[in-house]
Structure prediction request, 207 residues.
Amino acid sequence: MSRDDMIQYDILGRGISNPLVIGAMYEVPREKFIENSQKKHAFDDNPLPIGHGQTISQPYIVALMTELCSPDPEDIALEIGTGSGYQTAVLALLTKHVYSVERIFELHQDAEKKLSSMNIKNVTLYHRDGYDGVPEAAPFDIIMITSAPVEVPESLFSQLKNGGRLVAPIGSLVQELILYKKENGKISSETICHVQFVPMIKGIINN
Ligand code: SAH
Prediction:
């Protein structure tokens, strides 16, 4: 699979329609976020290992979650689970600033190096527990959780702006991708599809 194939079959072919999201999926070099041993699979339609038992999500799911967030160039976004930094880079192209939190120090550090080597400046990365969010930068227009909690932590709902969108995989063995919206302080939700993510785990790891 090439980058063109990925766009043709997994992004357009599976119904992603927001031209800005399609453009960002084309522009961000996914192969740069993939370990050397996995590079030949960079554009395949499945998650890939990134070390520490974690995975970079499959291209379609990255595009779908991005589209569900309805990104706007003026939006401030929070991502929970930086991982490889790929989703961070896609969101950074489509919003004003992305704050992203990762609990595993080495993944946090690698993502920071990668994004700065690609000259992506509108991101701030933290080695923190995502269950706390980033209260000092809140409220956010977009919150994207890229690991699965059993329910959305209250702290994250409280850091969502009125008019904001939060997308997250929810569950443990069986998970559903859910889009939440906040209007006048009230949260509504819409279930999108079944998904399979690594679990959202409390606490940080220092290596
Ligand atoms: N968005 C990433 C997906 C990485 S997988 C990418 O594009 O590559 C999910 C990530 O969430 C893992 O790196 C995992 O360590 C992280 N994670 C899990 N629980 C977390 C928590 N409580 N706080 C911050 N990050 C967490």
About this structure: Residues 139 and 159 are 5 Å apart (CA to CA). DSSP finds six helices and nine strands in the chain. Residues 105-117 form the longest helix (13 residues).
